[in-house]
Inverse folding.
């Protein structure tokens, strides 16, 4: 188990996923990585419009959390949503078509990269406004509680978002109403280009939980099993009516904030240190060393992912452009 910093008597377990779930975790990790690498290449070829905020390096967070969720649980994402969407079960075909701006996309080509979602699998269309998704996630959790459903709402956000007023208001509401909300901070050390230490006077975002009387824990966000075990306990608390938990996952994006980011604000040495902590390599090493899987099993999974991505590209290429007369459909409701 990775080192953790926590408060409010939040105990992390030592549960080991079944082999089936371990392989599911590995497949999702690699699917997100290869999807992001592929769409980056497609963007450079001019086949994807707009910009991209890639999830490369942070895959363990979305996968570790999604591994303990039900299809009916809701997740709210940010301007960096592809990994969250794939982990929650949104089809790679639908996401790819959305990035292409096609009518068959997850949001009919109207949302693009920063607004991916599919309600049928519990992934609301992502919200690109920093901190804007947190009050909505709290509202979803409130709806679950009022309807007496043992469902949870998960909200992903970056370290920068926890300095927004929306964050503090939503966390306070979630705390005093004991909402079944899981707050997942993906602290990748930079709010765009602003270093964490220049914007915070605390060591960890998780320390802020104590101000609201909820459990907060900071964990190694590149250790997918640490994320899984922490999320498992937080979700169990929420389903049992014990309220909100703040999980801070310390991680690192291996790419820039967006496609236009040259990353001049951080050193090559720092990047190399974090590449050595790559979540996929770490988990693959674990699977092989603990004999939870062998090379052939993992290779077959990796080959199936390559086929899935090829099919997604072919689907997006063959899909029609949106009709101009559809511009207001699903936008305004009477």
């Amino acid at each position: 188990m990775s080192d953790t910093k926590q408060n409010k008597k939040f105990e992390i377990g030592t549960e080991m996923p079944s082999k089936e779930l371990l392989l599911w975790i590995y497949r999702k990790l690699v699917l997100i990585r290869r999807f992001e690498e592929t769409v980056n290449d497609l963007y450079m070829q001019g086949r994807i419009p707009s910009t991209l905020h890639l999830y490369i390096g942070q895959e363990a967070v979305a996968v570790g959390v999604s591994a303990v969720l039900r299809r009916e649980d809701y997740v709210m994402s940010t301007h960096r949503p592809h990994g969250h969407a794939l982990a929650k079960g949104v089809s790679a075909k639908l996401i790819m078509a959305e990035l292409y701006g096609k009518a068959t996309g997850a949001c009919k080509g109207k949302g693009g990269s920063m607004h991916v979602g599919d309600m049928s699998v519990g992934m609301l269309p992502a919200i690109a406004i920093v901190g804007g998704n947190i009050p909505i996630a709290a509202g979803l959790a409130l709806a679950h509680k009022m309807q007496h459903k043992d469902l949870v709402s998960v909200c992903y956000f970056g370290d920068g978002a926890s300095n927004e007023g929306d964050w503090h208001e939503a966390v306070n509401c979630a705390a005093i109403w004991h909402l079944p909300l899981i707050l997942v901070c993906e602290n990748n050390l930079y709010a765009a280009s602003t270093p964490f230490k220049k914007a915070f006077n605390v060591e960890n975002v998780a320390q802020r939980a104590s101000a609201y009387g909820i459990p907060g824990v900071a964990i190694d966000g590149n250790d997918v099993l640490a994320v899984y075990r922490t999320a498992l306990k937080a979700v169990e608390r929420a389903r049992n009516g014990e309220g909100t938990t703040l999980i801070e996952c310390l991680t690192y994006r291996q790419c820039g904030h967006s496609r236009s980011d040259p990353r001049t604000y951080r050193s090559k040495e720092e990047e190399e240190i974090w590449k050595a902590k790559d979540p996929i390599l770490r988990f693959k090493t674990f699977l092989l060393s603990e004999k939870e899987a062998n090379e052939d099993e993992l290779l077959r999974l990796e080959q199936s992912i390559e086929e899935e991505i090829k099919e997604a590209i072919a689907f997006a290429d063959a899909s029609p452009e949106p009709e101009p007369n559809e511009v207001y459909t699903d936008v305004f409701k009477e």
